[in-house]
Amino acid sequence: MNFLKGVGVSPGIAIGRVFLKEDITIEIKNETIQDTESEIARFKDAIEKSKQQLQELYEYALEKVGKHEAQVFAAHTMILEDQELFESVYDKIRTENKNVEWALKEASDTYIKIFEEMDNEYLRERALDIRDVTLRMLRNLSGIEDNSLVLLKEPAIIIAKDLTPSDTAQMDKDKVIGFITEEGGKTSHSAIMARSLEIPAVAGLDSITLQVKHGDIVAFDGTEGKVFINPDEKTIELFKEKKERFEKRLQLFATLKNSEAITKDNVRLEIACNIGKPADVDRVIEKNADGVGLFRSEFLYMNRNDFPSEEEQFNAYKTVAQRMKQKPVVIRTFDIGGDKELSYLEFPKEMNPFLGCRAIRFCLGRIDLFKTQLRAILRASAFGNIKIMFPMISVFEELVYAKQILEEVKESLRNEGIAFNEGLEVGMMIETPSAALLADIFAKHVDFFSIGTNDLIQYTLAVDRLNPHVSHLYSPYNPSVLRSIKNIIDAAHKENIWVGMCGEAASDPKLVPVLIGLGLDEFSMNPASVLEVKWMIQQHSKEEMKAIAEQVLQFATSDEIERFLDTNEKIHLF
User: What is the pTM of this model?
Assistant: First the structure.
């Protein structure tokens, strides 16, 4: 028996035999050709064939998986229309007399390298899209069909170096009981697909393809990332029990869709969702959540060649507002910078980009872009229950200036006779220690707070959350973090404004009871966590959790708090 630990990217338990998906090796020769036009014709044929295949995959994914996931193949088609990439191929064929396979490989490798070296995880993973499209075209040029997963005859756990979106879109849920990859992370397309298909998955297991062979038995946990290769009978039995408990849990959660998040002592709390695109609203509606607690508007600025126009943004916000039918939609003004770069905007090189020109700091330095977005949000507010939220406010002057600009935009719209919601609520994210300490002052000037725990933890503990050398210090259970959250909630309630949380901690089963006790009003999270958090809220009494929260705040370390929560009989965990 061999034990490995990777990154759990899709929850669930899988036990089964291994299907080792080996990469197709296509030998690319460096040849000098004479008939360049014939080679270009082959290239164009490969593009058209690839487009046709992607259209078929798009339609298949749309029917079997969902609209959001199908967009992967629309994005791949856009790569096939990238003039800059293909001009480079044409140039190598015409001026260097290279064969099309070699020219294509050379050009795409250049682009893949550029994306792989980016600091931003989301953009880094776009290299996989280019690799996937390139492989498809090389297969078409070579006449090789790739249908290895389609040919799967028996239920199996797929193990691969990586899985392309094309691979995951063709997965038959009855045959693929789980998958493990060497590459990828929680935001990779394969991980997103796995969660949509509800297939357990683990990523980031370096060299696992060298440690298993066809037919081996594997048992793994897609939440914890624990993987056992050829486990003994005792381990298999333990995983069978875990699997049974997990499936019962899903059955129970499914019954809660139309119930409300009310504590045992009748306190109603709001459960909202975090989204990045209008298409994500499908899942919010599917889970019957109370609203959108965080619309990460910066995703509208990514994967394109220029800033979105006011009209594009207006249509996106209006669509979300209308589909939510008067349920609240909190739009965070764009949080660019830090780990979120734009391919079409050159950011100044900074020693510490997370402490540099990002979020509201960037907006206040580019008033033109900021006003365009505010106009779009305000116009859309006439079509639903939209609220505006400013990210990463760290000093009071930033809030005052941002609100001043908002008022200028409102006045401009009034002068133009354009409708918007005059009573629109304005809030701010609390994600820096300075904002947490000044919460009592900020609370007098906004309608709500939303606590961004991912950054609040990072800045409070001075820990780069992307740095593996110090990641052990990054903990939502740290007493300093929990004391900050209490200070924020108390300050807000003193001024009669509500407080939400949109960081990962809002869906942490162990923290939810504590957050109830601290007085949090709204929990916003990934749609997949909505029903579980609803269950957590229904199991607890707010009064009892107040006492638990007070005890938690007396501890000195994260470990003490975790142990206390793990063993306290009043904390109900699955």
Answer: 0.72
